Amino acid sequence: MEITHRFITTNGVRMHVAEQGAGYPVIFCHGFPHTWFIWHNQLASVAAAGFRAIAPDLRGYGQTDVPADVESYTNEAVIGDLLALLDDIGAEHAVFVGLDFGAALVWELALRSPERVRGVIVLNNPFAPRPPRSPSQLWAKAAARHFLHLDYFQKPGVADAELAARPREFLANVYYSLSADYHYLDTWQFPAEGTGYLDVLPTAPPLPWRWLTEAEFDTLAQDFERTGFTGGLNWYRALDRNWELTAAYADASVTVPAYFMYGDHDPDMEGFSGRDPLTTLRTYVPDLRAVTKIADAGHLVQLERASEVDTLITAHLRELVPNPSDVPA
């Protein structure tokens, strides 16, 4: 089974989709700065298990359109793309897998359209209820003490220019910094004033790494060399608008079946998910069926520990869909 590629028009956006296998659909949602390719190991294993593995370039990334306005990057807008993708393949529902922004996306999809979600499998970014204040207010307070990429990315054009000027250097440094081979929160040792993202990131060792080959890195980097990073950065700039659009879900729980796995060195679990993220997750996700900590892994756990993640995802899928040839239509 080879990976195939095609384009569909969803919600006014031409979206690139990579697919492998046949059977019940499993849709993978990536984060920043990624493309569909971040899931290539999982596509192969899920397809081999009898499922139809689907990984789109989400809007703003890769070969998918890059809308100009920030409003186009809300979870509500991208959920429209995912539902249109389901309609395109003739599926009533699917299992959704998410990491980073993709995790927040599938959590919100499960809140907004639970009837289209058989279950969710989330990596590294646990569900948390809507905060009482807009995200940018929280980030500005933290940025008064130290550099914080969440705040830095809010300034239109600034990070865009910095990262686009040195795309391969940025990608190598940020991937390395987010892995178990580095402690990402060391970037907080730098002041925010007059500091760019490349100033705070460590210098990555030469490729290949134990979990990323030169060919894999080249595949990821080539898209960003062509597109730049503005599409991905606009996801950060839409987070306040996401907060506004989810007022009706402030105290809502995710009711679909859910599975969560995380790297034991993941910086989001350490510094961005609250004081007790697993207790919060269990409180607001009543049908949480498994939580697995993966040793010696950071934020890119699906690359760093591909075999373990593949095994977990396929096991969870078999529990959710015992007969993957039973395709919903």
From TrEMBL:
Record's keyword terms, sorted: Hydrolase
Domain of life: Bacteria
GO molecular function: hydrolase activity
Keyword Hydrolase appears in the UniProt entry: yes
Gene3D superfamilies: alpha/beta hydrolase (3.40.50.1820)
Tagged with keyword Hydrolase: yes
Domain AB hydrolase-1: 24-305
Coiled-coil regions, chain positions: none
Protein's UniProt name: Alpha/beta fold hydrolase
Organism this protein belongs to: Nocardia suismassiliense
